[in-house]
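Entry, Tuesday afternoon. Goal for today is a structural model of the target with flavin mononucleotide bound, before we commit to ordering more compound. Inputs were pasted exactly as handed over by J.K., no edits. I checked the ligand SMILES twice against the vendor sheet because last time a stereocentre got dropped in transcription.
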Amino acid sequence: MRKSEMLETKIGKLKFNNPVFTASGTYGSGKEYDDFLSLKKLGAVVTKSVTLKPTRGNPPPRVVETASGMLNAIGLQNEGIGYFIENLLPPLKKKADKIIVNVAGKCEDDYIEVVKGLNKSGVDGLEINISCPNVKEGGMAFGVCGKSSARLVEKLKKLTKLPLWIKLSPNVTDIAAIAREVEAAGADAIVAANTFLGMAIDIEKRRPILANVTGGLSGPAIHPLSLRCVYQVASAVKCPVIASGGVSSIRELIAFLLAGASAVEVGMMNFTEPAITIRLIEELAQWCKEHKTKVSELVGALEK
Ligand SMILES: Cc1cc2nc3c(=O)[nH]c(=O)nc-3n(C[C@H](O)[C@H](O)[C@H](O)COP(=O)(O)O)c2cc1C
């Protein structure tokens, strides 16, 4: 079997060369990684969240290392949709095979305007972030409520032909129920999931380490939790699922595929190993060769 046949994956009508994508916020616009890898080799680049207006994010400290992971409370810092389209997107288009733009907002109208702005931008799809744990308005406030999530998806679906992937929050009682509601509202795919709400304390100062007090936990520590989310979501919906959370080796990546993910986003580990995505693609190809299988056969192939 050819390597390309072994690795390719489909999400709706989009075909990707391989199932290894970047996770939003860990690849600003890609240029940070120029010295380490060719973005063309990745299945897709998922951008940092883009909002309608420039957003400063939260005050520092806004990241802290934890056991096998990190907490972040960046708070969606970005230059806004106008700057993104004019300055960040053109060079990214030259470098990446597929571009998925992550969209965030404080209210429905923000999401609507950003999606309208991206309609003719030539990107391949949109990942709608209704799950940021680090902002007071919007973000997770949508994602923890099935009704508000579904209403937003319904509105966005009416104004774009671009595939809409909805990135869910894991900080809910029943992620499968929310997945079902957004699928019914028109989601083309579901991304499970964003970071887990956490906290760290400086015991000498007896104060929270993050200025925001709480932050989102990512990295290897969360993989079993994210895997459970992917499994529950994939069991509940018919649309494709994309996994996010704690991938540091092909063991976690393949577990996500078996649990039902058609592709896997790699986040925090890019900071410790900037070319990890390339290593994962190579190792996945080798593993498939040794096991005489291919990615499309692995998706949802968990035996119970
Ligand atoms: C520093 C940092 C910034 C992030 N920013 C965003 C963001 O802007 N939008 C978003 O949807 N997710 C964001 N995330 C969440 C990641 O995309 C990913 O879903 C999460 O970190 C879990 O994957 P990981 O364990 O592989 O990092 C961010 C994560 C980190 C570590």
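The domain at 3-52+80-196+218-298 is CATH 3.20.20.70 (TIM Barrel).
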